[in-house]
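Troubleshooting entry. Yesterday's outputs looked truncated, so today I'm pasting the complete records for two proteins to confirm everything comes through intact. If either block looks cut off, that's the bug. Protein one:
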Amino acid sequence: MLKRVLDPCSIIRVQSWDSEAIVPSAVEDILGVAWPQQTGTVASGPASVICVGPTDWLVVAADLDAAPWLKRLEESFQGSSFRATDVSQALTSIEIGGSVSRDLLAKACSLDLHPQLFPPGRSARTRFAGMPVIVRCTETSTFELIVTKSHADYLLCWLTDAAIEFSNPQPA
């Protein structure tokens, strides 16, 4: 079972007060992806855009410095209902993977994680072991859990404890 805290990255929260608003085309050019409109979808490119709600997205980029991304997004959002906020210091990502990763995740949340319903490119905001977490499927058996930094240690401990049953074969 692979479990690790991912390297720090840029995470920018984009919100709009207008549920009918269309993202300016310049934003798609900046990010190199088509803006996802449906909750639970992810667009991946130079930066990934996770649609976590009807008017709520996370832009995740590998760069540690979010300032250039934020500046370009804010400029593109001028005159629109969209706003961008750097939340890089508030959130962290934990990756889990392996053949039992879906079973491990199912122990702590009510999502239907069947590969046909939750394939790569799918995400959901849910309660996970009592914490608010965004679960994102990045590969068939690999998931990214985005959680507040204040909950990260607890989540890692929970995952370690919950994974014990999958690492110790039971005698017949």
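Protein two, checking that the full record survives here as well:
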Amino acid sequence: MRIMQDVCLVASGQIRLSHPSDCHVYLLDCGNELALIDAGVGLGVARIVANIREEGFDERRITHLFLTHCHADHAGGCEQIQTLTHCEIVCSEIEGRLLESSTDEEIGLDIAKRSGLYPADYAFQRVRPQIIVHHDDVVRVGKYHVRAIEVPGHSKGSTCYLLQQGGRRILFSGDTVFLGGTIGLGNWPGSSLDDYRQYIGRLSGLAVDALLPGHFLWTLEGGQEHLDRAVENLKLAWVPPAWEHHHVHR
């Protein structure tokens, strides 16, 4: 599903574009190379590949997989996609360790299973990332430069990715911020209101046009308004609005 120039949605459990447990997975057409933002849960990778092909692309051109964080609905498909495409997995240092060698408890998978969000026999496939990014690092993929913006809060190493597309700025926010300024605070290891308070300011002043989160709706214009709302909410005395986590796992 084409969203905008050079950006397609190739997986989403919410709209049943792919497995019901998948986050939104975005495909970037970077010219001679392709990139993915997140990988889905890993229970329907063949369908994601079919969606990529339906958009007219060859999955073997995928050279990078940018991982926002290591929860199963975003990272469970990394191992299979890397095996299929030989792409390099890009993520923060903390999430990279979790991707390679975490326990189910460290990534909140035990809680998610008890909550009925994944099958009882679901197994998270660990894999080693190839590129570790820190806050403000830039990775070049084809004609684009992708900037990592690390914003702990949803998890300890949650990372958003900023893409400059001509005069437009696109932010892939994972589960850090959603439309309306909602944040991804939840009851699992690594999710921290204190971290949100400390780091949410990194999303100020980015002049974001398109805000493409890991779940729910997205917007192609005025994305910075939603980021600013999240920043302001975290300056107030009460807990800011968080997503309705019974709908989906982060």
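Both blocks look complete. Sanity check on protein two: Residues 245-250 have pLDDT under 50 and may be disordered.
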